[in-house]
Design a protein that fits this description.
9-stranded antiparallel beta sheet; cysteine dioxygenase activity
Length: 331
């Protein structure tokens, strides 16, 4: 009988050890390494602009998109940009009643100078640029190009009219023999529409999607842009401005300088005087194939085409730099 308490004591020790073992095992199943926990917290609490930077950093190279890009990173960027609103980049939507960018006279006919477009730099590196343009009503960024660049544009608030073109290939160029007349090149209309937030992200590519575009603010609005790679004149990525002329504006015969290209090499450069009907025949003879190579006017839809002339940076392009006050990013 004297051994019974001792036996119960031994049983109690074994039971206690078993309980401690089971508790430790249960806790180990729930344990998350500190580094993994930190990463998980960062992924759930990081500002959207940080997520955008991280995604751009893994997607773009100094020459643009990474080699042989799949649609997946493009889709990820668009899906993320689609969720952006003004608050995500430190902006608040402007009221049309407070806007003073209606031109020289304004809506109430009171003489005043138009407010400038404000440019906000979020981040720029050799691979990409993240920036914001804030437009007062009726302000315009004239028709301009993005040589060798891919651009994502997201309207954060307000309404904006977008008109965009892509060059017709092979190139069709008009060179006037009259002094003072500009050289013009044929382009096809890619977009002519109004974007109103909230709306999806627009994308333009080096040769498609409306690489040459102009913006006109219908109401106060802001646009978040991602440009990859960024403008850089010494590498051939200069921003060039254009003015567009209706295709039908050239009713009389004119000089056409046409380049016939094969595998990237110019074989022929012929300057001839042709009429509008003859240029249509010429384009049909160089119509596009299924891969999109060549120039084409389908069913005589001349309203889908325009002649673009290069111009100097417009004097009335009124733009100033502002300070980005949104969430900071870790580079």
């Amino acid at each position: 009988m004297q051994n019974i308490p001792k036996m119960f004591s031994e049983i109690q020790k074994v039971t206690d050890k078993a309980m401690v073992f089971l508790q430790k095992k249960a806790l180990s199943a729930l344990y998350i390494p500190k580094q993994q926990l930190h990463m998980a917290m960062n992924n759930t609490t990081a500002p959207k602009v940080q997520l955008l930077y991280d995604l751009c950093k893994t997607t773009f190279t100094p020459s643009g998109l990474s080699s042989s890009p799949s649609p997946q990173p493009i889709h990820k960027l668009c899906s993320l940009l689609d969720t952006f609103g003004p608050a995500d980049v430190g902006l608040k939507e402007e009221s049309p009643d407070d806007d003073r960018g209606h031109g020289f006279f304004g809506l109430n006919r009171v003489t005043r100078w138009a407010q400038p477009i404000t440019y906000l730099d979020i981040h720029e590196c050799d691979s990409f640029t993240m920036c914001i343009f804030c437009f007062p009503t009726s302000s315009v960024i004239p028709l301009h190009d993005h040589p060798g660049m891919t651009v994502f544009s997201k309207v954060l608030y307000g309404s904006m009219h977008v008109k965009a073109y892509d060059w017709v290939e092979p190139s069709c160029i008009k060179e006037s023999q009259e002094p003072g007349c500009p050289q013009v090149r044929l382009a096809r209309l890619a977009a002519d529409k109004v974007l109103t937030a909230p709306c999806g992200t627009s994308i333009l590519y080096p040769k498609t999607g409306g690489n040459l575009h102009c913006f006109t603010a219908v109401t106060p609005c802001a646009v978040l842009d991602v440009l990859a790679p960024p403008y850089r004149e010494d590498l051939g990525r200069k921003c060039t401005y254009y003015v567009d002329y209706p295709y039908s504006a050239f009713g009389k015969p004119y000089d056409l300088c046409h380049h016939t290209c094969y595998k990237g090499m110019t074989f022929l450069k012929v300057k001839v005087s042709v009429s509008q009907s003859e240029i249509i025949k010429l384009l049909k003879n160089h119509s596009t194939d299924s891969a999109g190579n060549g120039a084409q006017i389908s069913n005589g839809k001349e309203e889908e085409y325009a002649w673009l002339a290069e111009i100097e940076t417009p004097d009335d392009l009124y733009m100033r730099s502002g300070v980005y006050v949104g969430p900071s990013i870790r580079v």
